[in-house]
Structure formats: structure tokens, C-alpha cells
């Protein structure tokens, strides 16, 4: 795609433009080569415009002392991401129902559906139009999947699950397995039967190897627009609000409620029955043990320090009570 066309698509203004060159790829600013386009999103990175070998860059404001073609747009980073979609379109998958797939006669499939090899679709499943089910996926009874969804290989979706439109679920994820619930009787752990369901609303993306447990009685809910990273655990009866981001290895215990537009960074742990309000950010490795009812940034993770220093800190931590008594 040529520079003039790219500028037209993004309503950008060309700076230092001399020749309408062909753009054949995208790249980071330092890895770029001739034919690539990149971007600079922050003023502190302007110096990189002089070092890059890219043919052109997206910028918010012209960099006057950089001798490179610049496309001036309101948001260089977003323009760059959208150009990736244009230059690298998804591979077209034509509708088909593989002969090796096992599809119940009681299932209802929409138009232009792709069902890959060795998929199993149980009774009373409903799948919407233009949805893609990749090979080796299992879909349990009474599950409903909306339009334009993509279910990648080896996803397991247990019975009674409800999935909205334009949902993406990556490989290895398990949706609506039993919640982790037991009661004590005669000194033994007895399983609590979970008869609820999982509801995943529109435009949710679920990463690889995510587990979302079914509710015990009601619903585990992932609301619209939420994005869940790989290796995340969501327990029974949890509710996750709209447009929330859960980064890798987040764990949310049963019956907790996460608000809208929240970010839980990597390895955040949330105890059971916790409520987190809207617009909250929890920093990595933090543990949430009580309700957060005010928007803001919260965190309790410990940064890595030299081991020898940490051992000294531990020495004094273990002696705090003794030192406190001496101080009195």
C-alpha cells in the first residue's frame, strides 16, 4: 500500500513527503527497514526518528529535525494498530462442517458456520451465523454461542453456557467446569454440586488456558467488552464488569464482583466475596482481601531486591516484637 493511500485512510497530513513509496510491512521503530512503517507516540521518543530505517512513521506532531516521511495523525499508535489489520488480514476460513465432527441432530447451526475436524457438539446447542469452531473443541448440551465468534482448537465448553456475539476464546480454555466447593461431613470433603451456568457477553476475548467456573446456583458473568489474558482463573459466581482487563495469572475467588473499566495486573489475587468498584487499577502481585469501594490505583506487591539485602530485612522482621519490647 502506498503512502498517499495510507495518509488518506487515516486522514493524515504528510510531512517531508517527496515520493509516493510502497509500504510493505510494519515494524517497531528500531527494527524497521526500508519499506516498513512505524510510529512514535511519545515526545521523549522523538530522537528515535533520526535512527530508524523505516520508510515512514506515524506522528502526532511533525518532528522537524528528522529527515523521514511522517504521517501526522491524532493518535499515531492507534493508526499503526489499524494499519496492521489492513496489511495483515485474517486468513479467510470458508464455511464447512468437517466429516469427522460429531454434531447432534438436535443442534442448531446458523449460516456460514465453520465446524472443524473432531469437534463435538451436544444436544440443543445453538451456534450463530459466521461463527468459527476450530478442531477438537467440545461444546456441551444447551449451550448458546452467538454470531461472529471464534473458538480456537481444544476449547472445552461445558453445558448450559451462554456466549454472546463476537466472542473470541483461545486454545485450551475451559468454560463452565464445576466450581471448587465442598462441605465437611464425617471428617471428609463432600462435593457441592454446581447447577448454575456461565454467561459471557458480547465482545469478550478470553486468552489461552483460562478457566471460568460455573456458578453453584446462579451465574458466573463476564460482561461485554472485557479482555482476559492467558492463565487466568475465575471462580464460581464471580461477576466481572464491562471493559475490564484481567492480566495473566489473575485469580478471583468465588462470589467476588469486579466493576467496569478495571485493570487487574499480573498475578493479582482476589479473595472470595470481595467487591471492587468501577475504575480501579490493582498493581501486579497484589492481594485484595477487603472491598475496594473508591476508584483509584491500589497495590501491595513487593519488588525484587538483592537476596542478601532481603535476608537482612527478614532478620529484623522476625525480631520486631523483641525489638519493640526493648524500645518500650
From TrEMBL:
The domain of life for this entry's organism is Bacteria
GO biological process terms, semicolon-separated: lipid A biosynthetic process
Catalytic activity annotation: a UDP-3-O-[(3R)-3-hydroxyacyl]-alpha-D-glucosamine + a (3R)-hydroxyacyl-[ACP] = a UDP-2-N,3-O-bis[(3R)-3-hydroxyacyl]-alpha-D-glucosamine + holo-[ACP] + H(+)
Which segments constitute the UDP-3-O-[3-hydroxymyristoyl] glucosamine N-acyltransferase non-repeat region domain?
21-85
Pfam family of this protein, just one? Hexapep
Where does the record place the catalytic residues? 236
Keywords assigned by UniProt, alphabetized: Acyltransferase, Lipid A biosynthesis, Lipid biosynthesis, Lipid metabolism, Repeat, Transferase
| E.C. number | 2.3.1.191
Instruction: State the similarity comment.
Output: Belongs to the transferase hexapeptide repeat family. LpxD subfamily.
Oligomer and partners: Homotrimer.
HAMAP family annotated for this entry?
A: LpxD
Query: Function, please?
Result: Catalyzes the N-acylation of UDP-3-O-acylglucosamine using 3-hydroxyacyl-ACP as the acyl donor. Is involved in the biosynthesis of lipid A, a phosphorylated glycolipid that anchors the lipopolysaccharide to the outer membrane of the cell.
Name by which UniProt lists this protein: UDP-3-O-acylglucosamine N-acyltransferase
Source organism of the structure: Hydrogenothermus marinus
Amino acid at each position: 500500500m502506498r503512502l498517499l493511500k495510507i495518509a488518506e485512510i487515516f486522514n493524515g497530513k504528510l510531512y517531508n513527503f517527496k515520493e509516493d513509496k510502497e509500504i510493505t510491512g510494519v515494524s517497531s521503530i528500531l527494527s524497521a527497514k526500508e519499506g516498513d512503517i512505524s510510529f512514535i507516540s511519545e515526545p521523549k521518543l522523538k530522537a528515535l526518528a533520526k535512527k530508524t530505517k523505516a520508510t515512514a512513521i506515524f506522528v502526532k506532531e511533525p518532528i522537524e529535525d528528522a529527515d523521514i516521511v511522517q504521517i501526522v495523525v491524532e493518535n499515531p499508535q492507534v493508526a499503526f494498530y489499524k494499519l496492521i489489520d489492513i496489511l495483515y488480514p485474517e486468513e479467510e476460513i470458508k464455511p464447512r462442517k468437517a466429516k469427522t465432527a460429531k454434531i447432534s441432530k438436535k443442534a442448531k447451526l446458523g449460516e456460514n458456520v465453520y465446524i472443524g475436524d473432531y469437534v463435538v457438539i451436544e444436544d440443543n446447542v445453538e451456534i450463530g451465523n459466521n461463527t468459527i469452531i476450530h478442531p477438537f473443541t467440545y461444546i456441551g448440551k444447551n449451550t448458546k454461542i452467538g454470531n461472529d465468534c471464534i473458538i480456537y482448537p481444544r476449547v472445552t465448553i461445558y453445558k448450559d453456557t451462554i456466549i454472546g456475539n463476537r466472542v473470541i476464546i483461545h486454545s485450551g480454555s475451559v468454560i463452565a467446569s464445576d466450581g471448587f466447593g465442598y462441605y465437611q461431613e464425617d471428617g471428609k470433603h463432600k462435593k457441592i454440586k454446581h447447577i448454575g451456568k456461565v454467561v459471557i457477553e458480547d465482545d469478550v476475548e478470553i486468552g489461552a488456558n483460562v478457566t471460568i467456573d460455573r456458578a453453584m446456583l446462579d451465574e458466573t458473568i463476564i460482561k461485554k467488552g472485557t479482555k482476559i489474558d492467558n492463565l487466568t482463573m475465575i471462580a464460581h459466581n464471580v461477576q466481572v464488569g464491562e471493559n475490564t482487563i484481567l492480566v495473566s495469572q489473575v485469580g478471583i475467588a468465588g462470589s467476588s464482583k469486579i466493576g467496569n473499566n478495571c485493570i487487574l495486573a499480573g498475578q493479582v489475587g482476589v479473595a472470595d466475596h470481595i467487591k471492587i468498584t468501577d475504575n480501579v487499577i490493582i498493581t501486579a502481585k497484589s492481594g485484595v482481601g477487603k472491598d475496594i469501594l473508591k476508584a483509584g490505583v491500589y497495590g501491595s506487591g513487593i519488588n525484587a531486591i538483592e537476596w542478601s539485602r532481603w535476608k537482612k530485612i527478614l532478620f529484623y522482621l522476625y525480631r520486631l516484637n523483641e525489638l519493640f519490647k526493648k524500645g518500650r
